[in-house]
Amino acid sequence: xxxxxxxxxxxxxxxxxxxxxxxxxxxxxxxxxxxxxxxxxxxxxxxxxxxxxxxxxxxxxxxxxxxxxxxxxxxxxxxxxxxxxxxxxxxxxxxxxxxxxxxxxxxxxxxxxxxxxxxxxxxxxxxxxxxxxxxxxxxxxxxxxxxxxxxxxxxxxxxxxxxxxxxxxxxxxxxxxxxxxxxxxxxxxxxxxxxxxxxxxxxxxxxxxxxxxxxxxxxxxxxxxxxxxxxxxxxxxxxxxxxxxxxxxxxxxxxxxxxxxxxxxxxxxxxxxxxxxxx
Length: 279
Hints:
The protein has a two-stranded antiparallel ribbon with strand order 1-2. It has helices at 2-38, 59-66, 73-104, 110-120, 129-138, 145-155, 161-168, 172-180, 185-196, 198-214, 217-222, 231-236, 243-264; strands at residues 48-49, 52-53. β1 (48-49) and β2 (52-53) form a beta hairpin. By secondary structure, the protein is mainly α. α1 packs across α13, α2 crosses α13 (243-264) and α3 (73-104) runs parallel beside α6.
């Protein structure tokens, strides 16, 4: 009987691993293809031999940063970096404050507010793009990087539910002990909540950075001048004969996100408050 269960477990494990490997290969193939396309010797997608380039070269990456007469990738990268950094900083502060307030304080219409934000978050963001575009025109905020920063930051608190769930897991005994010692709400938030919330703060900062870093719809709607474009908008305006440059730009834009993830991954550990209070 034990041998039968042992064989069954081995078979299940093997089948599971085979399925996972197949799924990984399916998702990895487009990435591999794009990486190989970025090293294509010829710029056009029509010069490929089936899925893969006929020859390989670093010319795609070289022209990406040197040939800036028509396609100024370094400037697009700078614009994207400015928008993403400030949106991440401001948005993270707003989300954390919103989530903490709703998690730890009781006030009138709290449940109504939570239900309203939940319902509003179900609607796709592009539904309000036309109205947003008209508002930006009336306020003279077209072709301005800070207009995008304002919109990304203002919309960030709508996604507070994940952060609220994390704050709910912090034991109330910690806050009660701090209040008994005479700590104010500001001191409790600064000296107790923030040190215990590093994982969710890092998670929030990464998500708030990644959204404007890779967004295309909003920058394409509000940034009309070529020198104001972000990387996503600029790459979409490349011609078919510039596919190698497009692939190189797409690969390069993923590098900061990967670096940030590996640099901050040690903070992405949940349950940091576990064991903080002895029962």
